[in-house]
Design a protein that fits this description.
Blueprint: H1 3-15, E1 21-26, E2 31-38, E3 42-50, H2 52-56, H3 63-85, E4 94-100, H4 104-121, E5 125-129, H5 130-141, E6 149-154, E7 159-166, E8 169-175, H6 181-191, H7 198-206, H8 230-246, H9 252-278, E9 282-286, H10 293-305, E10 309-311, H11 322-334, E11 339-340
Parallel strand pairs: 1-4, 4-5, 6-9, 9-10
Antiparallel strand pairs: 1-2, 2-3, 5-11, 6-7, 7-8
Helix pairs in contact: 3-4, 5-11, 6-7, 6-8, 6-9, 7-9, 9-10
The protein binds 5'-O-[(R)-(carboxyoxy)(hydroxy)phosphoryl]adenosine and zinc ion.
5'-O-[(R)-(carboxyoxy)(hydroxy)phosphoryl]adenosine is lined by residues 29, 134, 155-157, 182, 185-186, 197-200, 203, 287-289, 291-292, 319-320.
């Protein structure tokens, strides 16, 4: 029997197995991360080798540099993940891998490592979408959380409001028509001369500033669940450049605070309106921008006012990590989804 034929049988048997231990791999951007997750919610280990320091000197992620550093890190991250979980390869039931969305070269390192591992250990390979993984990060942090819920997905690559009808059933209510929220944070930070990644820096600096610039955020999209952040980004860039030309000084802290206020208000208002429109009483935030303190504060205030339960992942599971991929893979296996053959390849873009 071929590897894949054998795995089809094994995969079916996993559906009914009492405990499922998944080893999950994430390499879509600048973190090499491998985790061991039991039953979708219990993280036995989550090792992250971050490349932030390496990319900082370039002011952003350099794709080729990211791929090379994933190659350098991945074997040791794997060994460390098993070690910290206090398990051996024999205890693993399946290998899960982020196949997209992300940087092609970076993804390929993880995908090929996962394929080699699955083949040599004779284990099923589960192909997981990165954005679905971000949503599943919430299952780790909140034992009681289950669909249906509304998800505000805000990362460096994606911004959307999703209706999560079931663990594997997603429908999109709205998305960004231009930049992702994280992308806007990073670009605004860059024009202010803040280091990469800009989102956390803006978050920090905003606490010292005041709301003085009432930037306009996508008026034409007011009655939709779509977003546009390129206009506000351009406004900030123009403000900074004009000030430089005129030799006037503007406060970065005020700029950060004003930008953040406008963007987080837009995100929080629409996410809560999505709950009210659908009648769904649970709201979840997912992705790197979900780490933003002001966004969480706004979402939690608005949810309280509207009798909606608000959930966010603990900080380390907001940004990219292997554990969220293992959490998602568990629910895919239980629903008989995601089994991949050794022909699996990486995809830079993946549909929600
Ligand atoms: O989910 P993530 O780690 O990677 C992608 O899938 O894109 O998100 C990274 C993004 C970056 O744009 C980063 O600046 C942003 O999340 N981010 C934040 C914060 N922490 C990370 N943005 C605003 N405030 C934060 N505290
Ligand atoms: Zn991500």
């Amino acid at each position: 029997m071929s590897y894949f034929e054998e795995m089809k049988e094994k995969f079916k048997s996993l559906k009914g197995k009492k405990d499922l231990v998944v080893l999950s791999i994430e390499s879509s951007c600048d973190e090499t991360s491998i985790a061991v997750v039991k039953n979708g919610r219990e993280v036995l280990s989550n090792v992250v080798a971050s490349q932030i320091e390496i990319h900082r000197r370039f002011g952003g992620v350099v794709p080729e540099v990211a791929s090379r550093n994933h190659i350098l890190a991945i074997s040791n991250v794997y060994k460390e993940a098993l070690l910290q979980a206090n398990l051996t390869e024999k205890d693993i039931d399946a290998i899960a891998i982020t196949y997209g969305a992300g940087l092609m070269g970076a993804l390929l390192v993880g995908v090929n490592f996962a394929k080699g591992l699955a083949y040599s250990l004779n284990l099923p390979l589960i192909a997981v979408s990165h954005v679905h993984g971000h949503i599943a990060a919430n299952y780790i942090s909140h034992a009681q959380l289950k669909p249906p819920f509304i998800c505000l997905m805000v990362s460096g690559g994606h911004t959307a409001i999703l209706k999560v009808e079931d663990y594997n059933k997603f429908s999109m209510l709205g998305t960004t028509v231009d930049d992702a929220a994280g992308e806007a944070f990073d670009k605004v930070a860059r024009v202010m001369g803040l280091p990469y990644p800009g989102g956390p820096e803006v978050d920090k600096l905003a606490k010292e500033g005041n709301f003085v610039y009432n930037f306009t955020v996508s008026n034409s999209l007011k009655n939709t669940f779509n977003f546009s952040f390129s206009g506000i980004k351009t406004e900030v860039v123009n403000l900074v450049h004009n000030a430089k030309q005129k030799g006037t000084i503007i406060s970065n802290a005020n700029l950060a605070c004003s930008f953040q206020e406008c963007v987080t208000k837009e995100l929080a208002d629409k996410a809560v309106r999505a709950c009210k429109t659908t009648g769904i009483k649970d709201l979840v935030v997912a992705g790197g921008v979900g780490a933003n303190a002001r966004l969480k504060e706004k979402l939690s205030e608005l949810c309280k006012q509207n009798n909606i339960n608000f959930y966010s992942p603990i900080l380390k599971y907001c940004t990219d990590n292997g554990a969220m991929i293992g959490a998602m893979a568990y629910y895919m296996i239980r629903d008989g989804l995601g089994l991949a053959s050794l022909d699996l390849t990486a995809k830079p873009n993946v549909e929600f």
